[in-house]
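Repro:
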Amino acid sequence: MELLPRSPAEFGSARYWDRFFRQRGQRPFEWYGAFTELCPVLRKYVRPRDKVLVVGCGNSELSEQMYDVGLCEDIVNIDISEAAIRQMRERSTGARPRMSYLVMDMLHMDFPDGHFQVVLDKGTLDALLTDEEEATLAKVEQMFAEISRVLQVGGRYLCVSLAQAHVLRKAVEYFSREGWVVRVHQVASSGDKEQFVLPVFVYVMTKFRKIPGSAAQILEICPEEQDKPMRMESAERLVAAVKDRQHYALLCSQISKTPCREQVSLDLCDKESGKPRYTLHVVDSPSVKPSRDNHFAIFIIPQGRETEWLFGSEEGRRQLAASAGFGRLVTAALHREQRYEGMAGIQAELSGKVMELAPPGLPARQQVPFLSVGGDIGVRAVRHCDSSPLSGEFVVEDVKGDGTCYFRRLIFLQNRNVVQSEARLLAPTPLPGQKKRRKDKKKPSPTEPPGAIDKSYLCCEHHKAMVAGLCLLGGPDALPGELAVLVVGLGGGSLPLFVHDYFSQARVAVVELDPSMLDVATRWFGFSQGDRMQVHVCDGLDYVAKLAAEAPAQYDAIMFDVDSKDLTVGMSCPPPAFVEKPFLQKVKTILKPEGVFVLNLVCRDAQLKESVLATLRDVFPLLY
């Protein structure tokens, strides 16, 4: 403990470092980053003929190791501590004739301008930039200015750092402002998580001549698993990308030591686009007794089935993990914007990364199984992508369900795990006179779903309940000759289509706020208007209010199937304004006597739900 500084300011004091190295003795002191980990990055930017300056060398073995493996020999090491320089000279005398050690302050260096091709800093910037006080920032600016002065154009400043946000931001802002190219490498870990949890980074700043008036910045990051850099649009985005990797390292360290009390969720992003490619959930099952073969497994959720309760809810995943019989199960959901090369390709892509999420006590070289439903990754074909000012981005996609059935779905991407509308697709039937396919002929591709909509089938359970609500009008004989139905909320049109087709006397009016939904329903879900089906593109609140004032007692049945865009409210269907008492009284006004109001209520806030039900009871005499 005596080696620790009394204050951060002592990190810049020669007296402190002299005392530090005298007390520590000859043992090399490495802040972080073993040479074996740093070497692959150093080899990219240090050439054997380069003249290299190491600032704040301390008694680290880094420059000695670079010399001994032939990476570079013309190395000048400087430090403000005479004790450290004395130790280093003693260690290298005679063994490394081209390497030199000098007592020198990096804020005031004696070297001529453009003297070096590389300046190497391992932990020195981190030690200097301990806070953001004015005096500290002034020293850092002086350090950067001196490094810039002694580097040739085209030279590289390599800074090994833990990349605290304020340190990285300062380096990026300074050198990008000077017109330098800034690239951040994450150093591949040796795997010893017990020794050091936080990942190590190397900032590579390449000096270019500053072009007057140019505001262009080249900022890049190279994750440890790839060589190709990813371009970042701003310093803040680069800092955020580094922070994501730091959080991931801390998470992996934590769950490798202790079981997860709560499910952990994270996205793995595509290397090219940066968009999410896999969504992983880590689920631990304390009830499973560990044995050699049931510690850990990966479950690939088939495409298009991530919205199902078993895979898309916390409780469902908990049941899945328990039934699978593994102590830790990682579920992987596949994203619709991405392409996948089958189960083998996914396994090859994920096997290294998911091992970082392994549970404590996993035996060495343990084979980790990849599981799925039916052994495949499912089928998803995106048919249409678009956006509207009201609904945001949305997609229409065909997916293979459990078995041989295909379904067409409408998904609003702001709530991508919720199916907005769904319809079953009909299996293709041969045309009259068309011969059946012989058994030895090539079968149709399993990835090509059929196209026609099965209008006789209601996919959504709540639609079945809403149609069943029409029974409250009486039996078939009791139904009026003409049934007037109002449906607020079109979606894919399955509900009004079913009422239209199976109640031959029904005249259906549909109110839809978003005109793009009418286009989607017509183009992709088999919806059409006619004598008994009319769509009004307007606000349902206004439509009902106008009818209540001008034409009361008009409908036998009114159905609300309206989603809420406000995700902060604990009620996703309908929007709160649709269940306020004054509006519900208007709904009652436009119902005929003995009429039925059917409401799809999706509310996960127990108090809010009870409040809505109480309001409904106040307005309507009977509530089912």
